[in-house]
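It would be a great kindness if you could assist me with a short task in structural biology. The matter concerns a single protein, recorded as an amino acid sequence and a row of backbone structure tokens. The record follows directly beneath this note:
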Amino acid sequence: MELYDVLVIGGGPAGYACAIKAAKASLRVAIFEKGAFGGTCLNVGCIPTKYLLDKAGDLEKIRKLTASGIYKDAGMFSFKEIQRQKALVVEKLTSGVSGLLRHHKVTIVKGEAVLKAGKIVECNGSHYTAATIVIATGSRPSTLNIPGSEHAIDSTNLLNISKIPKRLTIIGGGVIGLELASAFNSFGSEVTVIEMMESLLPQEQPQAVALLKKTLDKNGLTIHLSAKVSKIEKNNGMCRTTITKDGTDLAVESDVVLMAVGRKSNIDGIEADSGITFTNNRHVVVDEYLQTSVEGIYAIGDVIGGYQLAHAAYAEAELVVDNILMKESRKPYDDSVMPRCVYTIPSFAAVGETSGKT
């Protein structure tokens, strides 16, 4: 049995930030990660998405300059080169995280960790324990349980696609769906967004969302609200998504269907006898100090639900380490003024609680 002060399960923003801060405080720390460091954000989330959106924004500027006569020809662009450079950016950042962990003397354990009873973590046949364990296992894309769901791809697949689809159907009008809708609309795809709620971004201020939708409509996106997807069919490489809207069935044809219907917590490595409890949505339950149902075991990042944002994960990591170090003066976590952005074209930002939803 290997003994540490802190064990961190997961190497995404929450996990690596927690491990580094704890190590800086002279605690003996080990971090477990089965994949690339950086989690969803660096590998298949914020960083690659924002890189694509940055290039999409550049293309929009070039088109406007061409329309004004300053540029004579908008010219062609290389999506292959955009993807190549995006991969280089991701690789540089993820390797940087590994370097930071090593610099601060954090023990790196590569493999799939399992949290067992008695505050024991098993990985690669070895067992580890610590006074404090932090669960930071992140999340992964959810899917709809409908016929033909296997014909849809998730955001990870779309971010790594090699060819721009002529027509793209996006199921889900939340942050992920709208950001990728904006990017691929600028790259030249005919984009259709399908949202089952009455509004895009239903958690945000209705007036602001209405302005955003008006601009997205003007940019050429087709948006179906209050529409329920019933099935996806694929024939000869073409996808047909059937939706029900206003009591009528409609068929939307496209080359690619993106399923962007939220994310679910990665809890497969938490054994039932570990004592950890979960919400009905299968997020890890935590108290106001981000401690789970087991004393000395905390959970941070996407695995607890709430704001699934990298900067929220960093804030949670900071708080947990502070509370580990100062147990007699612990502070509760407060995300009531959490800033958040939606990097559509145009972008959308908010901070604090939304009027009418408090």
